[in-house]
């Protein structure tokens, strides 16, 4: 017990120091949190001047806290999103998702074949490079103050469609890897959509009831109810094969039209930031630089190619939704980061019976997520420089 408590203390101190340094130099805290996890994690560097840096393992506490971070980040994302927009703009969002998937999926297939991973490898690589990180992007948009901007609605809409696509993708991929049947995968997908539809209906029609149930006096009880329902629904979602992140998003939308939003932001946001920091820290803990170095060329090629493809698909999506050239460019920039879903695909790849996939795809995913999480957060923080050529366009 003392060992777990010590590791927890080290983790929070490392995050505090990394965050302070990031703020000191005017940078996003997300890359700093990831690097902090690498430094004090179980992999290299192992020591400095004879002092061991292997201070924190990816144990049960880190795993659970990271999951809480994902749930709370996506809950707050839903808090900023109008469920009525999602329902009324179904065709528009389907078009956004199609462009996003076709452009980035094609690049994923090309990368897999270029590095000799074959058709099954292409299925894994597409999943890794296609899906943007809802958790990282939500935090980055919040830090940059973009959530009130018109382009954020297109970004968030694209993320929701990606998450729905990924629910289908993961069910099929799990069936392939685990030796299951496509019929079983179809049942899983159908159950997932029924669950999400139920959440959407509650969010759309039940906001008055939600407000009555959760509008309690003591702040302590209020926070416990909010966090409790978000986490419980996320856990229930996982049990039926739905991402806890997608479920938490819909829970957040149920509160978005209530009078509780300001109180939630005031009381729950500090809790969100703490657990979100652990989520990014956990990415660093999982990064073995020695293993990633073995697939460095693959990571570099994928990062360059998919940065270009995501910028292109995001720009196209922005124009399709009527945004100006500069705001459309911001959509592409806002979607660059990859994260949690790519790592889930990596865990499935590690169970593959194909040696080339089992040995190459997991380290590639970890290295790719590390690079793209840093690229994505820095791109949002410095988007003014990246879009300077479009400065004359309407904003």
UniProtKB/TrEMBL annotation:
Residues 13-380 form the Cation/H+ exchanger transmembrane domain. The keyword Transferase does not apply. One of its GO terms (cellular component) is membrane. GO terms for biological process: proton transmembrane transport. Its main location: membrane. It is found in: Membrane. The chain crosses the membrane at residues 32-56, 68-87, 154-177, 189-206, 226-255, 267-285, 291-312, 333-357, 363-381. GO terms for molecular function: antiporter activity. InterPro entries: Cation/H_exchanger_TM, Na+/solute_symporter_sf. Keywords: Membrane, Transmembrane, Transmembrane helix, Transport. The keyword Transmembrane applies. It is a multi-pass membrane protein. PANTHER family: K(+)_H(+) ANTIPORTER SUBUNIT KHTU, SODIUM/HYDROGEN EXCHANGER FAMILY/TRKA DOMAIN PROTEIN. Belongs to the monovalent cation:proton antiporter 2 (CPA2) transporter (TC 2.A.37) family. This is K(+)/H(+) antiporter subunit KhtU. The gene is khtU.
